[in-house]
Structure formats: structure tokens, C-alpha cells
Amino acid sequence: MTTRVLIADDHAMLRAGLKMLIETQSDLAVVGEVGDFQSISERLAALAPDVLLMDLTMPGGNGVKWIERICKDHPQVRLLVLTMHDDPAYFRLALAAGAAGYMVKSAADSELLNAIRTVAAGRVYAQLQFERRMDSDPFLKLRDDQNLPP
Q1: Of 32, 102, 96, nearest to 65 (Cα)?
Q2: Which CATH architecture has domain 3-140?
Q3: 74: exposed, middle or buried (C-beta count within 10 Å: 0-12, 13-18, 19+)?
Q4: pLDDT, tens digit, 9 for 90 and up, residues 79-117
Q5: Which of 33, 66, 83, 92 could tie 56 with a disulfide, CB 3.0–4.6 Å?
């Protein structure tokens, strides 16, 4: 089965590169792309992707608020944040808002592909740098009683 991906990033060149990378994989397909938060909901309804690969910082609002809205309105879509923000506070806010995964744009191509597959399979994905911090910092837990699953 092919995992359908919608890319949301305000940089057209990055979207094009992500699309080229993702489409090298036989089990992944890019079904569309958007450059701002306002366009996401409309495209989600029209394209029915399995995974939304979304930047946290784009025109049209607060990324964390948009995560909450998207996850509420489209619970069947797994949201993977791909961002420049490597601050653990952003990581915690994104996952608490409903994101299924979080990674920074400096990650390797192979890590992004693994992250897409992980969230598509219903699991939570966090880059190792955030996972290690969660193990040692109680303020980075998803909830007071929850860490990332193994």
C-alpha cells in the first residue's frame, strides 16, 4: 500500500526537493503541496493524504494552533512536523498539540523517509536528539504520565 503525503512548506524550492526525494520511494507518493496554513484544510479534504508533512513556521498564523486545528478537523491524517526549530520547547508544544512526529530540516534524507513511514504506521516519531532529552527532562514528556513509545 502506498502512503499518500501532502507537503506544506512556504518555500517552493524545498517543497520541490521534498517531492523529488519522497517520490524515489515505491511505497510513498506526494499527492499535493501547499505554501501556507490556510490552504492545508482544503487540500486535506480534497486529497485525503495519510501523512501531512508540515513546516511549523509559515504565513497565516501560529503553527502550534494550526496543528491543534488540523488534528481536530482531520483526525485520520498523521501530522509530521519538519522545521528549522531545534528547541525542545517547540518539540513538546507540537506533540502536545497533536503532531505524530517532529524533526528538524537538517536531518538526513533517510531519517525523513523513516519518519514518514513511522507516523504513517501509527507510531510517534522524534529525532534522537529530542528522544534523549525526553528521557531525562520531565518537562518534555508528552503528558505528565507519558513518554514516547519504544
Answers
A1: 96
A2: 3-Layer(aba) Sandwich (3.40)
A3: middle
A4: 999 999 988 888 889 999 999 999 999 999 999 999 999
A5: 83
Identify each DSSP E strand in the chain by its residue range: 3-8, 28-34, 51-54, 78-83, 101-104, 125-126
- For 86, other C-beta atoms within 10 Å of its C-beta total 15
The cell numbers describing 35, all together, are 505554501
Domain residue ranges of the chain, discontinuous segments joined by +: 3-140
Asked if 96 and 63 count as a contact pair (C-beta separation under 8 A), the reply is no
What is the per-residue pLDDT across 109-148, written as a single tens digit (0 to 9) for each? 999 999 999 999 999 998 665 555 555 555 545 544 444 4
Q: Which long-range contacts (CB under 8 A, 24 or more apart) does 96-104 make?
A: 96/142, 96/143, 97/64, 97/65, 97/67, 97/68, 97/71, 98/67, 98/68, 98/70, 98/71, 98/72, 99/67, 99/71, 100/124, 100/125, 101/125, 101/126, 102/126, 102/127, 102/130, 103/127
